[in-house]
Amino acid sequence: MKTPLFIFFGIIFSLTTATAQEINQMDDAGKRHGIWQKTFEGTNQLRYEGQFDHGVEIGVFKFYCSECGKQPMVIKEYSGKKGLADVKYYTKKGKLVSEGKMLGKKRIGEWLYYQKRGNAVMTREFYTEGELNGVKTTYYPNGKITEELNFQNGLKEGANNYYSPEGVLLKKLQYRNDKLQGAAEYYDSNGNVSIKGQYLKGKKNGLWQYLKDGKVELEETYPKPVKRG
């Protein structure tokens, strides 16, 4: 009586093992289906692992570097809309570098980047179909804002402000079509205007004033005349 049971469970075990080993398969239409794994050429180091449903990525995909060992550098978790994934980037030691959403190969929505030391946010930015859109905000390790920079369709557009670690405004600039354009003011550590002028297509233009304690000490006009001879 024991022999038939032994054979039965042996068959079940063999079938289970065979099923588990069936990776990198194609469906009848020639599309990747089921669990897939790829290694770096000539090594046992995984390059990526994940699961396909008739050519479509589903569930969790992990991507590795050639020296990563078991620590993935990128993890994509697919759910819902085709190609939509929550994405996280890591260092080789497993520290979270950045995270956000991707649709296909394009970043969308909010993306966060973290300080090299600690878990505080270093940069917050927003994407529309892979292009930066909206305010990109950078932070000091203490959480105060370093810089605010506006983007439109991947180009710098609008206000650009810089702050000291204490929150004092240091620079107030404007961009148009990815170049400095319009009024510009620079401030000292106490928040007093120290330099002011105008930019035109990325270059200083017109009258620029240099101040100290609210008084003009120097004035320059741009573009400067070309010296000849």
Rough shape?
A: elongated
* Binned strand content: over 45%
Measured distance between first and last alpha carbons: 112 Å
Give the integer mean of the pLDDT values.
Answer: 91
Annotation, overall tally of beta strands: 19
SSE topology string: HEEEEEEEEEEEEEEEEEEE
Helix content: under 10%
Radius of gyration: 28 Å
Helical element count? Answer: 1
Biggest sheet architecture: 19 strands, antiparallel
Contiguous uncertain segments of 5+ residues = 5-20
SSE class: mainly beta
What is the fold's blueprint, element by element?
Blueprint: H1 2-20, E1 25-26, E2 32-39, E3 46-53, E4 56-63, E5 74-78, E6 84-90, E7 96-103, E8 106-114, E9 121-128, E10 131-132, E11 134-139, E12 145-152, E13 155-163, E14 169-176, E15 179-180, E16 182-187, E17 193-200, E18 203-212, E19 215-222
Antiparallel strand pairs: 1-2, 2-3, 3-4, 4-5, 5-6, 6-7, 7-8, 8-9, 9-10, 9-11, 11-12, 12-13, 13-14, 14-15, 14-16, 16-17, 17-18, 18-19
Give an account of the 3D structure.
This protein has 229 residues and is mostly beta strands. The chain is 8% helix and 57% strand. It has one helix and 19 strands. It has a 19-stranded antiparallel sheet that branches. The model is unreliable at 5-20 (pLDDT under 50).
